[in-house]
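Case study 2.
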Amino acid sequence: MFIDSHCHINCLTGADSPENIATYLKNGESSSIDKYLCVSIDWETYPEVLALAEAHDEIYASIGVHPNHDEGYEPNVDDLLEKAKHSKIIAIGETGLDYFRSEGDVEWQRDRFRTHIAAAKKCQKPLIIHTREAREDTIRILKEENAAEAGGVMHCFTETWEMAQAAMEMNFYISFSGIVTFKTATELKEVAKKVPFDRMLIETDSPYLAPVPHRGKQNEPAYVKYVAETIAELRGVSVEEVAEKTTENFHRLFKTAP
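Prediction:
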């Protein structure tokens, strides 16, 4: 069985309908997926994320504000800690730095990142890290804030092997999305060959970044199997071994997930 370690089920088409959610979960079950981590990206839609986790035993949730979200409520450490008390909240994030979509002075991103790291350390729940075109600052802040005390995952990893090594040295896992199935992702495929099996996760980041053969369409958790198949092919192992190892890793990292 697979685990989709990072998805946004509340953002899928028709997610406001219980019938549509049931269909997405049935599709996942048909693709041997039995657990999902639905990740929060802002304070305003967090109730939708939590409601899905409360309604479905197989769905877990996180609490956090995405680095590109520049409107709405800005939580402090206490705000995050209060939400993190809920039994279905197993992680803090997604958080991090994204200089690709944000322009001008982005010190507010770095401040938000530090806030999330502080909360994760206090509640001892792992961080979900988003990073894009901010390689040096992401690693620097993780080191400065002793994020290794919480650990976490570099989600939808698209960076270099050197960054993967730096992250793993700080108790972080490396998660691969549908991007690893793209023909153009040659460097990422090499990273996927090198990451130790006991530090790897798989995800969809749905509804974004659908893998081959569904590239260009809406992504959904059921498609995480294509990520696993690509990694299995790259490493010369069975898909079953990828499923077993990444499931073990998920439960080792997200210790509060039953």
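The chain has a mean pLDDT of 97.
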